[in-house]
Amino acid sequence: MTDVTVVIGAGGIGQAIARRISSGRKILVANHSQASADAAAKVLADAGFETIAMQADISDRAMVQAVVGKAQALGAIKALVQAAGVSPSQAPVEAILKVDLYGTAMLLEEFGKVMASGGSGVVISSQSGYRMPALTAEQDAALATTPAEDLLALDFIRHVKDTLHAYQMSKRCNSLRVRGEAIGWARRGARINAISPGIIVTPLAHDELNGERADFYRAMLKKMPAGRAGTPDEVAALAAHIMGPEGGFITGSDFLIDGGATANFFYGPDAKGSGNDK
Questions:
Q1: Rounded CA gap, 104 and 100, in Å?
Q2: Is 167 tagged catalytic?
Q3: How confident is the model at residue 211 (pLDDT cuts 50, 70, 90)?
Q4: Which range is least confidently modeled, 83-87, 100-104, 194-198, 268-272?
Q5: Largest interatomic CA distance in the chain
Q6: How confident is the model at residue 208 (pLDDT cuts 50, 70, 90)?
Q7: Active-site residue, from 78, 171, 217, 278
Q8: Residue 270 and residue 71: Cα distance in Å, rounded?
């Protein structure tokens, strides 16, 4: 039986990961619009991969189930790359929570039912999940384990105040959700993890670097220890390790890859309580 990689949201990062892990596999690409799915599939096909494209809104369970059905018809689902999402500059609060928080949780529920033994999934989260005010242990547990259909009704989710807070909360949920899902995925012999990138050179990053929070993001770039933005291929290299045989002991984990931006945020010279503030 042919092995299948499913890529949801095949932008720069999703495509880079697909190239690293999909030799000898079919790739099913699902994007929000058919046109963007076709464009991503063409790039991968031109690189030598057998690729199928379809439209899917990850906030719509029926559409996600259609992706699952298509993937099963193609072969054994050995990899899931969830790279779909919207940023604070791209959508209102409700859309961010519906796509980034609910959509990812629901997607993991659906694929957790069908992953092939030895399969692995990765969710592309964000450093932003590390920057929001601390939640209680009970709130963290709720983000990790509440059924997807009930997530948006949680009281502390209903009181998210702005798009940045919605994005941070969603990415916090992504990072925790892989812990909650890892138990169920293991029953199928599969693993699930998350990666939390910082500023990676993608169209989404360009939107943020030129949007209403441009000054914040440009200052972050100047201050981060790495001194530069990252590339999709650097994220893909990490994903390939986590998802491959050498990562066989890794599941339910989140990996921060942000050039040290989070370290600087908490402990740099301008951080409150760092001991270095003037």
A1: 6
A2: yes
A3: low
A4: 268-272
A5: 63
A6: low
A7: 171
A8: 48
- What's the confidence (pLDDT) of residue 273? 42
Question: Among the options 98, 167, 267, 272, which is catalytic?
Answer: 167
Residue appearing with tokens 């201050």: 223
Distance CA 211, CA 105 (A): 28
Query: Phi and psi of 27, rounded to 5°?
Result: -120, 125
What pLDDT is attached to residue 207?
Answer: 66
- Structure tokens, 7: 């890529």
Instruction: Output phi, psi for 198, to 5 deg.
Output: -90, -140
Kindly report the backbone phi and psi dihedral angles of residue 232, in degrees, each rounded to the nearest multiple of 5, phi listed first.
Answer: -55, -35
Q: Which residues contact 99 (CB under 8 A, 6 or more apart)?
A: 57, 58, 59, 84, 85, 86, 91
Cα dist. 246→87, 160, 191, 233 in Å? Answer: 32, 39, 13, 18
> In the structure, what pLDDT confidence band is assigned to residue 276 with cuts at 50, 70 and 90?
very low
pLDDT tens per residue across span 7-17: 999 899 999 99
Contacts of 114 (CB under 8 A, 6+ apart): 68, 71, 72, 77, 188
